[in-house]
Amino acid sequence: MAGDFDVRGRRVVVLGAARSGIAAAELLVRRGATVTLSEMRPQFDGMERLRDAGVTVESGGHVARTLLDAELIVASPGVPLDQPMVTAARVKGVEIIGELELASRWVKGPVIAITGTKGKSTTTTLIGRMLSAAGRRHLVGGNIGIPLSAQVDDSTPDTVHVVEASSFQLETTVTFRPWISVWLNVADDHLDRHPDMASYVAAKARVLANQQESDVAVLNADDARVVEQSGATAARRIWFSPSGQLQEGFVVDGAWIVRRTATSREPMVPTAAVELNGRHMLDNVTAAVAVCWAAGVNPEAMTQALRGFRGLEHVMEPVGRIGGVSFVNDSKATNVEAARRSIESFAEGVVAIVGGRFKGGDLRELVPALRAHAKAVIAIGDAAPLIREAVGDVVPVTDAASMGEAVERGYEQARPQGVVLLAPACASFDWFRDYAERGRAFKQEVERLKSRGA
Predict the structure, then answer these.
(1) Using CA of residue 184, residue 189, residue 194, residue 199, what is the dihedral sign?
(2) 268 with 404, same domain?
(3) Do residues 269 and 285 lie in contact, with contact meaning Cβ atoms separated by under 8 Å?
(4) Is residue 34 a contact partner of residue 12, using CB atoms and an 8 Å limit?
(5) Which of 112, 157, 158, 297 is the most buried (most CB within 10 A)?
(6) CA–CA gap between residue 356 and residue 370 (Å, rounded)
């Protein structure tokens, strides 16, 4: 936290009018800055609200002169930083930070920051529930829900900010220092935006960069890249292991999530309290238990928080059954690793709906999971030809030109008893606004199929 950070009277440009950009612009105005919000779209929700708050809105494209005249630029996570006019402003000496960095300079309470390729939202939500069960004042947000900038005014020294942090948010951090950092895993993702895997990993590693000896880093002992990067932090390291091959740290051991030490085995949470679908979800629970133990939450509160929690919308979400066929919405599985884990969550009989706008990685990594657990793939969106090429020699692949067609064909091939699983391994932006709209479309088509008496 940088309490002496002052923007009064400074010319600040916010790039991008997504939720975090709007929250940043409103916060900056309240802090006395002269704010211009620059957005590529001609129209967007919140334009009039921003103008009423005193923000100058430039829509329909970024203006080079506006950026060059700025004293500070705050970039939304979705804005590429390699644009020529952004580069020109940086060369001129304009400070360029992200919304997460901006807000962190003003929050008064400690921050728990969660990053990783898969499982961030579930883990972030679980930590919030556990803190709530323990009676701790907290706010949950960041890349999930409410941007950190919208929490600043409600921040107090005893408010714990539980923040989901994406690579796009972390790459623009400078002084951001979590009290507890959490790095769940890392796999190929967002390679349509990051130039290479090394850049993606380096962005994730920013969550550790400014931590000090009084801080804590909760890390995945089974992930070689996380282990390799862990040496960069001065924080006390607490390990968790999905495989259970860990002498000291947090693991699933029998019917319990336990904390192992060199001399003891401390039961924390019974696995029977976990009501989430998918073995990989237990990994997220184990990480959340490790975090909340470090934060001083007692095991009883952790267990209480788990009971009745069946997961987030669009994350391994059961949608219903038609006859013997189940439908599961994992629209948030937007990369290959997430889709693989999703497919592996079922013993057999999976018909996976895969596709969208490909973000990079190797679709062939789905082959072992498909061979062991799936009977067919329905390929959708821009990536359909890539999917057919990658896995067509392992399972039958059928193209679908719409979500309705994908659901119908999935049902036909999953009968009489199987699972139609939306596990796209891709972004949604070819057909949909975001993964949530894609997930809702899947659920609507399942309901239509039910109503036709399938």
Answers:
(1) positive
(2) no
(3) yes
(4) yes
(5) 112
(6) 18
User: The tokens of 41 are what?
Assistant: 């779209």
If one counts the domains in the chain, the total is 3
What CATH number is attached to the domain comprising 57?
Answer: 3.40.50.720
In the block, residue with structure tokens 């779209």 = 41
Query: In this structure, are 118 and 253 located in the same domain?
Result: yes
| C-alpha span between 242 and 220 (Å, rounded) | 8
Q: Which two tokens stand for residue 352?
A: 């996976």
Q: What are the residues facing 377 on neighbouring strands?
A: 352, 397
Domain end marker among 75, 99, 123: 99
- State the 10-residue block means of pLDDT for the chain, 454 residues long: 81 95 97 97 94 96 96 91 92 97 98 95 96 98 93 97 95 97 82 70 95 98 95 95 92 96 95 88 95 98 95 92 96 93 94 95 95 97 97 97 98 96 95 94 97 78
- The token duo for 98 is 């992200």
Residues 354, 339 contacting (CB under 8 angstroms): yes
Structure tokens at 146: 């409410």
Domain region containing 29: 11-99
Residue pair 44/105 in contact by the 8 Å Cβ criterion: no
Residues 144 and 71 in one domain: no
The one-letter amino acid at 229: Q
**Which tokens belong to 357?**
């706008």
Q: 295-301: long-range contacts at Cβ-Cβ below 8 A with a sequence spacing of 24 or more?
A: 295/112, 295/131, 295/136, 295/160, 295/180, 296/134, 297/130, 297/131, 297/133, 297/134, 297/136, 298/134, 299/267, 299/268, 299/269, 301/130, 301/133, 301/134, 301/135
Residue 366 CA to residue 383 CA, distance in Å, equals 14
* Residue 312 belongs to some domain of the structure: no
* Domain match, 126 and 254 both: yes
CATH code of residue 425? 3.90.190.20
pTM: 0.87
Cβ neighbours of residue 148 closer than 8 Å, sequence gap 6 or more: 23, 99, 100, 103, 104, 107, 141, 142, 161, 163
Does residue 220 belong to any structural domain of this protein? Answer: yes
Task: Give yes or no for a contact between 395 and 368, defined as CB atoms under 8 angstroms apart.
Answer: no
Are residues 447 and 332 part of one domain? yes
| Long-range Cβ contacts of 450-454 (<8 Å, 24+ apart) | 450/320, 450/322, 454/322, 454/323, 454/411
d(CA 439, CA 454): 21
Q: Domain check: are 356 and 410 in the same one?
A: yes
Task: Please indicate, yes or no, if residue 4 is contained in any of the structural domains.
Answer: no
* Last-in-domain residue among 260, 285, 306: 306
pLDDT averaged over every residue in the chain = 94
Amino acid at 340: R
